[in-house]
Amino acid sequence: MDLQSVHAPGLGPGLAAIGFYTTHVAHWVRLRKAENALWACHLGCLFVGIGWLAPWPLANAIGLLWLLPGIFFWGLFLADGGLFTWSSFLTHVGGNVLGLWGVVVLGFPAGAWWKAGAGYVLLILLCRPISRLSENVNFSLRVWPGWETRFPSYRQFLVLLVMGAFGLFLVLELLLRHFLPRTT
User: Fold this and answer.
1) What are the start-end ranges of the E strands in 57-105?
2) Fewer CB within 10 Å: N-end or C-end of the chain?
3) 55 DSSP assignment
4) SS3 helix, strand, coil % of the chain, rounded to 5?
């Protein structure tokens, strides 16, 4: 290993993001709820870390697109009485900060929105056989608790969730590319 690789600009942020993710995974493993490591927002932090280390702007962009809505759902989880943990704070807040910084440094490739959407659909499909109903990782099994009156069927909820994710990722990409204009 040469000195330049030790001091690579993405090494610190990349290792930090991956450290945030692995710390949060350890938290879920201790609780015997390891499937929660597969939430898109949690994996988003991992992708941000990979994006910094590679350097791979698309990984950072997808990670950030998964993290930004994730902080909203994390807030809903906390508002509904969910337990605050520092590892979750690092993943959600730290991951978003590092992802935004990554956009400035690495750029934001055009078309990341639909790749983030396709990846999210794959995560839902992956989580269906893995997630317990009580965990409902990536909303892969049922309507978000409390929203059952708005969505009487899971199929309707899932269609809106996927369409909403694609739409939100597109809007976020447009905003990020406009306000943080370094693009690749």
Assistant:
1) none
2) N
3) T
4) 75, 0, 25
What pTM was estimated for this model as a whole? Answer: 0.92
C-alpha span between 19 and 113 (Å, rounded)? 25
The string of pLDDT tens digits covering residues 73-83 is 899 889 989 89
Which of 93, 72, 76 has the alpha carbon at shortest distance from 24? 93
- Cα–Cα distance measured from residue 105 to residue 99, given in angstroms and rounded to the nearest whole number: 10
Who has greater pLDDT, 5 or 137? 137
- Three-state SS for 168-182 is HHHHHHHHHHHHCCC
8 Å CB contact between 166 and 160:
no
Check whether 2 has a pLDDT greater than 70: no
| Residue 63 to residue 41: CA distance in whole angstroms | 7
